[in-house]
Amino acid sequence: EAGVAQSPRYKIIEKRQSVAFWCNPISGHATLYWYQQILGQGPKLLIQFQNNGVVDDSQLPKDRFSAERLKGVDSTLKIQPAKLEDSAVYLCASSLGLAGGGQETQYFGPGTRLLVL
Amino acid sequence: GEDVEQSLFLSVREGDSSVINCTYTDSSSTYLYWYKQEPGAGLQLLTYIFSNMDMKQDQRLTVLLNKKDKHLSLRIADTQTGDSAIYFCAETDLGGYNKLIFGAGTRLAVHP
User: Fold this and answer.
1) Which are the contacts of A22, defined by CB distance < 8 A and separation ≥ 6?
2) Which of A6, A11, A94, B3 could form a disulfide with A29 if both were Cys (CB 3.0 to 4.6 A apart)?
3) Are B40 and A110 in contact (CB under 8 A)?
């Protein structure tokens, strides 16, 4: 079974430029998550989708970050304009998204490492 | 709000046991997780424990949960050099649709 795919793996941009990351979750997974992992810290959830709807974007800096999952499968995360403090690893994860709650394992992709100069 | 804390660094000799500790604040957490991250890689789920359990064992891994003290530990028996990585403790946020709250991670270094 293929895992969560992300691209690009690395990106270097200058501040005030824009950047986009792509994620393809595990086939059949309804829930998709974007996490930001700053060096030396644990991942922090930015946004969570259930199919193509947003269920949690409370920690997404909406003035510069946006994300979409138009057909309920792939997702893109965009930063425009980027700031120095956006340098981090952006991790995508997916889970089955079962109704009724219960334990659900999140499977993580390899991440996109962003450096803003 | 929720908070998860871990010690930042642990060094052990190959063949010894490693114990990584974690404390959490959300008493309503139902599941607590241990993830492993190797350099340049994503997070790999090692194990999880339901909050009504005290202990869970899975091959070389033993998870202990003290719900009263909100303390979680991961013991790795017979630690190998391949176990060198960063280990993250995480709790679920019941109000957040399975959202994970992570600690800062414990870097485990295994030396000969």
Assistant:
1) A6, A7, A74, A75, A76
2) A94
3) yes
Task: Report the chain A residue with the minimal C-alpha distance to residue B42.
Answer: A110
- To the nearest whole Å, the CA of A116 is away from the closest chain B CA by 18
Please tell me whether the peptide bond between A8 and the residue prior to it is cis, using omega within 30 degrees of 0: yes
Residue found by looking up tokens 């941009």 in the block: A13
Residue of B44, B50, B92, B99 for testing the chain A interface, max A β-carbons within 10 Å: B99
Instruction: Encode pLDDT of A82-94 as tens digits.
Output: 999 999 999 999 9
- Nearest by CB to A95, from B50, B98, B103: name it: B98
Report how far residue A25's alpha carbon sits from residue A72's, in angstroms, rounded to the nearest whole number: 10
